[in-house]
Amino acid sequence: MAYVVAKAFLGRQQLRETTLPPLLIPGVATLDIAVTGYAMPFSWAQEVNMFAFAVGSVMAAVFVALIFARLRHEDPVPLPARPSLMVLVAPFAVGFLAYTNVTGLVDLFATVLFYFGLFLMLVLSPMVFRTHIPFSIAWWAISFPLAALSIAFFRYAEAVQSNFLVMLAGVMFVFLAVAITVVFIRTASIVLSGKLFEVK
Questions:
Q1: pTM for this prediction
Q2: Which of 106, 111, 167, 198 qualifies as a cystine partner to 159, CB 3.0-4.6 A?
Q3: Sequence-ordered list of residues with C-beta below 8 angstroms from that of 159, at least 6 positions apart, any chain
Q4: Distant-in-sequence, close-in-space partners of 163: CB < 8 Å, separation ≥ 6
């Protein structure tokens, strides 16, 4: 994360080529520290989690704004890279998990994070899951945002004690399992056929 931020301060970069959804990955990875580290039985763990949450959430917000501007004002993302759009869901789903871990609450802010992440998934899915988009390793970009959203869905449904949302969370999990299974099978197919580096 420090390298990505420092590089942003070092000079002018081309918006179209450098400001794409994968730019969010370092920020989301920093948020993951707060997601996985909240249960660490050390006196210093809380401050580490808060540091990671602060850095990851603010930088994710900055990069989301930049990426939205790029997508709005520049050429569309090329078809082979279209699955990477799903990475836009990750800051909100992972942010929800990190925030609820740090605070122990599913409050209004957590609800906003969850529902906006769900909204983006619903908006982006028809753009990503299209038969004319060629298969490539870029399809693995759908895995961790959908997995994070699935976990967030179950946590939110449990917090509000809604059987309907629990059912929808189950549907989301099935969708995640099917999507990852298809990507895994297609990846294994091109690996076994020796065509991995031929896929564009």
A1: 0.85
A2: 106
A3: 100, 106
A4: none
